[in-house]
Design a protein that fits this description.
heterodimer, A: mainly alpha, abc type-2 transporter like fold, 2 domains, four-stranded mixed β-sheet, 16 helices, B: alpha/beta, Rossmann fold, six-stranded mixed β-sheet, 9 helices
Chain lengths: ~450, ~250
C-alpha cells in the first residue's frame, strides 16, 4: 500500500518544482478573480447601483420638460446634468459631448413639446367622443423626446435609460389624458343630456354635474413586489464577487489540465512512464495517485480563491464573499469538479503527442469551456443557441452547483444533478484515456 | 523477492510481432534464453527489432504469438508477478529531471515494492554502486550525460532483479563513465544477474557478453559466444566485422 502514497508524493513534489505550473494553478486564478471582480463590480454599480449621468437639454421649459426632469431625478438611477463647464447645455453641445464619449446619454426635450402634447390629448379625447368627426380625429405630428447615446454603450445599459423614459412618458400621458377627460367629460355629458332629453335634460344640466378629480390618472392599480427567489427565503445580495469567486476558482481548477497533461506527456517522452509500467504496480494505482494529487491541488486552489474572496476583495472595496451554510455541499461539488478536471487532464495527456499540443489545446479548450459555461458572462445573458451549448460545459455544471449553494441556499441534494454530470464526465474521460492508452501503447521504438 | 537465482531467468519461444497496419513483422519467431549470471548481447542495426523484443520481454507490449517466461513465470499470464523479477534500463534517461537522484530512486524503489529501512539501505547501496554518492542530493537535470546514465542503471537494479534488460545503456557518454558502467555490470553478472544487453558498440558486447544474438529484420540470424561466431565465419577477426558481414553495409535509417 506504499505505492499510492509514493505516487501522490511524487506528483506533488514534481508540481512544487514546476514554477510555471504553480503560477498557472495558483497565481493566475487569484489575480483573475481580483481583477475581474473589481472590474465587474464597477459595471454592476454603473448599471444598477449608482446613478448614470445624463445630459438634459430642456428646450420646452414648460410642464413636460419639468415633469420628465423631476421624474428622472426621482428614479434614483439617473443623475441630470444641465450644464457643461458652467454653461447651460444646448442640443449641439450635448451631441458633441456624447459623440466625444464624455457622456453616454443626452435627453433632449424639443421646444413647444408641452403645448403640442396638450393639443394631441385634447384632440384624441374629442375624437373619442365624436368618432365620425374627421376634424376632431386629426392628430398632427407627434412630438418626440430625443435620446442620444454613445454607440459603445451596451444594449442593457441603453435599455435601462430608454425604459425609464418610456415609463415617465406613459405616466405623463395617462395623467394628461385623465386631466383632459375630467374636463371634457362633464361638458360632453351635459351637451348629450340637453340634446336627448330636451327641457328635462336642460333642467338636469342646470344642476352642476359631479366634478372629476384628475388625480385618478396618476393612481396605480397594480404594484410590483421584487423579491429574491432563494431557498429558505433570504438569498445573498447579488454581486460580482458572488459570481466571480466560484467562477474563476473553477476556471483555475480546470486549468490543471495544462500542467497535468504536460506532466503525462513528459513522462512519456522522458521514458519514466515506461519504467513505471515495467514495475510491479497496477495501472490503477498510478492513475489514482495522479488523480489524488491533483484533486488535492484543486482543493488548495479553491481554498485560496475563497480566501481571496473573503479576505482580500473586501480590502479592495468589493463586497465580501458569502459562502452559504452548506460546506459539505461545497466540498462535494469541488471534489466532483476536481475529478472532472483531472479526468480531462489525463485524457489530454494521453491523446496529445507533444507538450506544446497539450498545453495549447488544454488552455484553449478550457477558455472555450469557461466562456460557454458562463464563467465570463452569465449564461442567462447569452443568445439562446449559446445557452443550449453551455449545457454541455463541465464548467457550467460546476458553476451552477456552486452558485446554487453560495447564493440560493442550495444543498448537496439540490446540486445532485450537476454532481452526477461532473462524475460522469470524469468516468467518461478516464475510460476514453484508458482506451487511447491501450490502443496506442507506450511510445517505444 | 526470491533468494535463489533460477538457472534460466529468461526463456523466449517463437516470439512474433507485427505492428498494426504493417505488412512486415517486426519480430519473426525469435527464440532466446539467458542463463543466470550471463549477459546476452542483442545486436542489430537500427530498426532490426531489438527494442521491440525488449519491450515485449519487459511486458510493455504484447506479441502476436510466442511465449516469454521470466524465472519460470509466464509474463503474459502472471504479469505482475513476473515484473518483480526483472529490471529495465531503457534507452531514455527514464528519471524525473526535477527530482534528485535519491528522490528518483526512492520513488521507483517504492513502486518496486521496497519500503522502510530496506528501501533506504538499497537506495544508498545503488547510489554508491554507480558512484553518485556525492551528487545523490542534486537534481538529475544538473547531471552530466554519464551521471544520468549511471543513475538510470541504479533505478533499474534497486530491487535486485534476477534479470536485467539494458537497452543501449552507454550511448552518448564518455569513456570513463562507460568503463565504470561496464565494470559495474560485470560485477552484477558475477553475482548471478542475467542480462539482455543491446548496444551498437561491438567492443562492449565482446567485453561483457558471454553470448551474442545478431538480429536483423526481426529475425535472429546467429547466436552464440562471440569468439565461436567469429571463428565460424572466415575473414572475420572481431564481432564488428561479423556484424557487418551478416547485416550488410546498407544504411538503415
Amino acid at each position: 500500500m506504499t505505492r499510492l502514497p509514493a505516487t501522490i508524493f511524487k506528483e506533488l513534489l514534481l508540481l512544487s518544482r514546476d514554477r510555471a505550473g504553480l503560477l498557472v494553478l495558483f497565481l493566475m486564478p487569484a489575480v483573475l478573480v481580483i481583477v475581474v471582480s473589481l472590474v465587474q463590480e464597477n459595471i454592476l454599480k454603473v448599471t444598477g447601483e449608482t446613478t448614470i449621468r445624463v445630459l438634459f437639454v430642456d428646450q420646452d421649459r414648460q410642464l413636460l420638460g419639468q415633469v420628465i426632469e423631476t421624474q428622472l431625478k426621482q428614479s434614483g438611477t439617473i443623475e441630470i446634468a444641465k450644464e457643461l463647464s458652467g454653461r447651460p447645455v444646448d442640443e449641439k453641445t450635448a451631441r458633441i459631448a456624447v459623440e466625444d464619449g464624455d457622456f453616454q446619454f443626452a435627453v433632449i426635450i424639443p421646444a413647444g413639446a408641452t403645448e403640442a402634447v396638450q393639443k394631441r390629448v385634447n384632440r384624441q379625447i374629442m375624437s373619442a367622443f365624436a368618432p365620425g368627426d374627421a376634424a376632431a380625429g386629426s392628430n398632427g405630428d407627434m412630438p418626440r423626446v430625443t435620446v442620444l447615446f454613445d454607440p459603445l454603450v451596451q444594449g442593457t445599459f441603453r435599455a435601462s435609460v430608454t425604459n425609464a423614459l418610456h415609463i415617465i412618458l406613459l405616466t405623463l400621458e395617462l395623467e394628461m389624458k385623465a386631466r383632459a377627460v375630467s374636463e371634457i367629460f362633464p361638458r360632453q355629458l351635459g351637451r348629450i343630456l340637453q340634446k336627448t332629453m330636451g327641457p328635462q335634460g336642460t333642467a338636469a344640466v342646470g344642476k352642476p354635474l359631479p366634478a372629476m378629480n384628475p388625480e385618478w390618472g396618476r393612481q396605480r392599480l397594480l404594484g410590483i413586489a421584487s423579491l429574491q427567489a432563494a431557498r429558505g427565503g433570504v438569498g445573498k445580495r447579488p454581486s460580482s464577487v458572488q459570481q466571480n469567486v466560484p467562477a474563476w476558482a473553477l476556471f483555475g481548477m480546470f486549468f490543471i489540465v495544462v500542467p497535468m497533461g504536460g506532466s503525462l506527456i513528459r513522462e512519456k517522452q522522458e521514458g519514466t512512464l515506461l519504467r513505471v509500467m515495467s514495475l510491479p504496480v497496477s495501472h490503477l494505482t498510478i492513475l489514482a495517485g495522479k488523480v489524488c494529487a491533483y484533486v488535492l491541488v484543486c482543493f488548495i486552489q479553491f481554498t485560496l480563491i475563497l480566501a481571496v474572496g473573503k479576505l482580500v476583495l473586501p480590502l479592495l472595496g468589493a463586497p465580501e464573499l458569502e459562502i452559504g451554510s452548506a460546506p459539505l455541499a461545497i466540498a462535494v461539488v469541488v471534489t466532483s469538479a476536481a475529478l472532472a478536471a483531472t479526468g480531462y487532464g489525463i485524457l489530454l495527456g494521453t491523446i496529445a503527442r507533444t507538450y506544446e499540443q497539450a498545453s495549447m489545446f488544454g488552455a484553449v479548450s478550457v477558455v472555450i469551456a469557461a466562456a460557454i459555461g458562463g464563467i465570463m458572462v452569465p449564461v442567462y445573458a447569452m443568445p439562446k443557441l449559446m445557452q443550449q451549448i453551455s449545457q454541455f460545459s463541465p464548467l457550467a455544471w460546476g458553476l451552477n452547483a456552486l452558485v446554487d449553494v453560495f447564493a440560493r441556499n442550495g444543498s448537496a441534494q439540490s446540486v445532485l444533478p450537476q454532481i452526477a454530470l461532473l462524475l460522469f464526465f470524469f468516468a467518461g474521460t478516464v475510460l476514453l484515456s484508458w482506451f487511447f492508452f491501450h490502443h496506442r501503447g507506450l511510445t517505444v521504438k | 523477492m526470491v533468494n535463489t537465482r533460477p538457472e534460466r531467468p529468461l526463456v523466449v519461444r517463437q516470439l512474433r510481432k507485427t505492428y498494426p497496419g504493417e505488412a512486415v513483422p517486426a519480430l519473426r519467431d525469435v527464440d532466446l534464453h539467458v542463463e543466470a549470471g550471463e549477459a546476452l548481447g542483442l545486436l542489430g542495426p537500427n530498426g532490426a527489432g531489438k527494442t521491440t523484443a525488449i519491450s515485449i520481454m519487459s511486458t510493455l507490449m504484447r506479441p502476436n504469438s510466442g511465449t516469454v517466461t521470466i524465472c519460470g513465470i509466464d509474463i503474459f499470464k502472471q504479469t505482475h508477478q513476473a515484473k518483480k523479477h526483472f529490471g529495465l534500463v531503457p534507452q531514455e534517461i527514464a528519471l524525473y529531471p526535477s527530482l534528485t537522484c535519491r528522490e528518483n530512486l526512492h520513488f521507483f524503489g517504492r513502486l518496486a515494492g521496497l519500503k522502510g529501512q530496506r528501501l533506504k539501505v538499497r537506495t544508498e547501496e545503488c547510489i554508491d554502486l554507480v558512484g553518485l554518492t556525492a551528487s545523490a542530493g542534486k537534481r538529475v537535470v544538473t547531471f552530466s550525460g554519464g551521471m544520468k546514465r549511471r543513475a538510470n542503471i541504479a533505478a533499474g537494479i534497486l530491487h535486485k532483479p534476477e534479470l536485467l534488460f539494458l537497452d543501449e545503456p552507454t550511448v552518448g557518454i564518455d569513456a570513463q563513465s562507460r568503463n565504470m558502467i561496464l565494470e559495474m555490470l560485470a560485477r552484477l553478472k558475477q553475482q548471478g544477474t542475467g542480462m539482455i544487453y543491446t548496444t551498437h558498440y561491438m567492443e562492449e558486447a565482446q567485453a561483457l557478453c558471454s553470448r551474442v544474438a545478431i538480429i536483423d529484420q526481426g529475425e535472429i540470424i546467429v547466436q552464440g559466444p562471440p569468439l565461436e561466431l567469429t571463428a565460424r565465419y572466415p575473414g572475420c577477426t572481431d564481432l564488428g566485422g561479423l556484424f557487418l558481414l551478416l547485416t550488410g553495409k546498407r544504411l538503415r535509417d
